[in-house]
Amino acid sequence: MTDLPIARHLLRARDLADARYADALDVSVLAQAAGLSAAHFSRAFRKAFGESPHAYLLTRRLERAAALLRNTDNSIADICVAVGLTSIGSFTTSFKRMFGTTPTAYRAAFPPASTFARVPACVVRAYSRPQLRTFREDDRPGRTLTSGVPTTDSGGHHVQDRQRPALGA
């Protein structure tokens, strides 16, 4: 059996960091995925990819946080936790170092996420249908009923009152 090149082991660890960036990953977990000792893994990772495993993982987390800031209305704290970071202060500092601006200012530079919200056509149709309307109501001249608000006729009587039969009649 031939030994796999160390790059294959490092790619396995890097793929793990890409897939599970929000989990509590540290160098020992990544080294275990690569099948290497933590010290050997750190040296080999830095040599192969040009940055430490910790810096690589932090970069993935901050890139994902930037995407969430652009595309959601989640709070900064929620985004911080969602990408696997625990301190909002360190998140803000790291984010500013990487993107040159704070998370709040970064979000403000993009249109609100609600402009990109897609509502299914069936929901749009359901909510755009006329409310409290039938064909008989449309046939009566001078009568409009909007959203359940009682309307009055020219004599000041409520339209809905005229529809109800008198008791005992």
Helix-strand string: HHHHHHHHHH
Counting helices, strands and paired strands, the structural category is mainly alpha
Helix proportion: 55-70%
The CATH C-level name of the domain at 6-108 is Mainly Alpha
| Termini gap | 98 Å
Could you give a short account of the major beta sheet? none
What Rg, in angstroms, do the CA atoms define?
31 Å
Please identify which CATH superfamily of the domain at 6-108 we are dealing with: Homeodomain-like
Topology, number of strands: 0
Q: What is the residue-mean pLDDT, rounded to a whole number? A: 81
Strand percentage: under 5%
Tell me, what's the shape?
elongated
Helical run tally: 10
Catalogue the unreliable spans: none
Descriptive notes:
There is one protein chain. This protein has 169 residues and is an all-alpha fold. The protein has a domain at 6-108: Homeodomain-like (Arc Repressor Mutant, subunit A, Orthogonal Bundle), CATH 1.10.10.60. 57% of the residues lie in helices and 0% in strands. The protein has helices spanning 6-19, 27-34, 38-49, 53-71, 76-82, 88-99, 103-108, 121-128, 135-139, 159-163. 18% of the residues are buried.
